[in-house]
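Thread title: Can someone regenerate the structure for this chain?

I was given the following input by a collaborator and told the matching structure tokens would be attached. They weren't. Posting the sequence so someone can regenerate them.
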Amino acid sequence: MFLEVAGQRGARPFLWAKRDGTYRSLSWAEAADRVSRLARGLAALGVEPGDRVALVSENRPEWAIADLAIISAGAVTVPAYVTNTVEDHRHVLGNSGARVAIVSSAALAERLIPAAEQVPSVRAIIAIEPPGDSPARIAVHSWNEVLALGDAAAATAADDLAGRVAALSPDDTACIIYTSGTGGVPKGVMLSHRNIIDNCRGAYRLLEMLGLGDEVFLSFLPLSHSYEHTAGLMFPISIGAEIYFAESAETLATNLLETRPTIMTAVPRLYETMHQRIRTGIQREQGLKRRLFERAVAIGRKRLAGEKLSHGERLLDPVLDKLVRDKVRARFGGRLKAMVSGGAPLNPEIGSFFLALGVRLLQGYGQTESAPVICCNPPGHVRIDTVGPPLDGVEIRIAEDGEILVAGANVMKGYWNDPEATARTIIDGWLHTGDIGRLDPEGYLRITDRKRDFIKNSGGDMIAPARVESALTLASEIAQAMVSGDRRPYLVAVIVPDPEFAAAYATQHGTSVDLAGLARDAGFHKAMADIVAQINQGLAASERVRRFVIATEPFSLANAQLTPTLKIRRHAIRDAYQTDFEALYDGKGMAA
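Best answer:
Regenerated them for you:
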């Protein structure tokens, strides 16, 4: 697919990255040349078809080139997260039996190389940038050195890259992606070429409703995750799109304005953050500007609900489009056709907020085991409280216990070297997702919770924690939350306050803005308790948070309390706050 599209696109720009403060492009032809050179270089290092090659890098052009080169050589890409510890890398390298590892920077090499030295299968490391101190056992080659090996191999009669590509079967494994998981040891998901191509085909049939043309993607989710790997790399390749790599999550707002993408994939956390920033900004406004904004949201929500607009609203709406919605769309670069939300459930309140403001937001659903997309809202008929109907070629049914089952060419081959886990997950051709949901009469899927994440309190009530957490984080004063209460009489929570709210309180009361300090401040606890009490009014009795603690630090990748797609790791947070939870049930801590 890549080589065919590259042959058609030639000198047109393909991959964009910042260098010296300016976005610079690599053409399709240049990328194809480097892919071929690197693939030959890997073969020269002894990489055989079926061998696993690990890839540890931030999003950048070399990531895409390395991935495509590995599979062109008939090998299997094993992406690893840049947040991995030495032990995480040791597990991925050892479990996959990786023969070679490619690493981008010296900082990442500091954690990869010690792990590789503990894994006998690893014979060589390829460093995109100088890696610092070299290990004693493993040969370290520079990126350019391996490209040169490829050049030398191309000049010999023994060169067989074309043969390796031609020998690939659709059912050969293209990559083994280790699930980030919200708990337990990551398992390697084997995705075939067929799995990924089928997902690209389904995505194309969905998004062709937008009138696809010369598309521009902005990539910022980790390419080591199946969501971005398919939706942010392989799908753009399949339609000949340009891909810009964001510098970081922190620079995303600036990069949106610089790159002006037409399509973008993101996780709910991005929309939650932008919703909070827009809301906070508008609350500071007074008079006409604020009233126009609120009116634009109200009329937009009314239209989304299918309610008839009054004569005055119909006259005002085009004016609000120019004065309000155009400015919101401009924050996203001004030419977005769609933003796709996946990786975790999107709060319908936040989704409808952006839709009401003219930002086309398509919520989807999937998991690594399905390559990964299962469902997505179609552009012409968005129902943001659902994840939409299944992609073309994907079949869904709901088991008796409510579990979502999936069949189709996108379903994984299985878990690497784990036939027992594979047999538990794929039964009679149906992928058991572990998610609970239901299909409405129009075939749209609504996710209610994770099968194993339900809380059953001591009174026998079944509670979906994601619903309660969503209600808490919808409040502008709360940035993150995790609730607990399995086999307990009531729910308790860990709450991370919104940084701006915390800073405003600290300034007003002359206290430390540090979370650890605020966690001990009785006045701040009382302020948060009042907010939680208001939220509780909209929840069922069994869902109400009775007591809570304030987190001493935000949930983050650094403290392993978030997955790379920014879902909370319940087990990690529970472990960190277990003593606090016990104290809450002993009557200590703040009541809401």
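The chain has three domains: 31-168, 192-451, 454-591.
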